[in-house]
């Protein structure tokens, strides 16, 4: 696996530092509230687990499995909900937890759906942000790291369901996915 990595973008230690800093911010912003943290499967699972350990207020967790990639390296723009929430968000504060924010089409669809379901507030936390790839007007309130436009894997992020279990985030050698 490691032989497929061109360079390391975030080390395991750097990721944990980002999780602590983001957890501290979220703790301050949600004091006295019990937000629902909605992890977007499958990529956010490692980040979500480490992030919520650093949030020092009550939270509930739930998951959505939403896809717009369908096996490729770029979003198709077609968003499919594969697993919906099992918790009502009516009049609740929601924190969407995402591994990477690129085009924004998937998150924009999720935000629209949650607004329709009458949540009190919605904020987005993402470990990685690629603002140069944005196709819709959406931003995360909480961002771990802005990264350049390179294909990254590890720490939940995949290529064809592989590399998710790397403890760091790295750029994948182009010959692997081209």
Automatic annotation (TrEMBL):
Q: Which key words tag this protein in UniProt?
A: Cytoplasm, Glycosyltransferase, Magnesium, Metal-binding, Nucleotide-binding, Purine salvage, Transferase
**Cofactor(s) for this UniProt protein:** Mg(2+)
Q: Residue ranges of the Phosphoribosyltransferase domain?
A: 13-159
InterPro entries on file: HGPRT, Hxn_phspho_trans, PRTase-like, PRTase_dom
* Location in the cell: Cytoplasm
Per UniProt, the enzyme's principal EC class comes to transferase
Reaction it catalyzes: GMP + diphosphate = guanine + 5-phospho-alpha-D-ribose 1-diphosphate; IMP + diphosphate = hypoxanthine + 5-phospho-alpha-D-ribose 1-diphosphate
**Enzyme Commission code:** 2.4.2.8
User: Pathway involvement?
Assistant: Purine metabolism; IMP biosynthesis via salvage pathway; IMP from hypoxanthine: step 1/1; Purine metabolism; GMP biosynthesis via salvage pathway; GMP from guanine: step 1/1
GO cellular component terms given for this protein:
cytosol
Q: Name one GO biological process term.
A: GMP salvage
Please give the Gene Ontology molecular function terms for this protein.
guanine phosphoribosyltransferase activity; hypoxanthine phosphoribosyltransferase activity; magnesium ion binding; nucleotide binding
Family in the record:
Belongs to the purine/pyrimidine phosphoribosyltransferase family.
Q: What does this protein do?
A: Purine salvage pathway enzyme that catalyzes the transfer of the ribosyl-5-phosphate group from 5-phospho-alpha-D-ribose 1-diphosphate (PRPP) to the N9 position of the 6-oxopurines hypoxanthine and guanine to form the corresponding ribonucleotides IMP (inosine 5'-monophosphate) and GMP (guanosine 5'-monophosphate), with the release of PPi.
This protein's name: Hypoxanthine phosphoribosyltransferase
Which organism was this protein described from? Mammaliicoccus stepanovicii
Question: Coding gene?
Answer: hpt
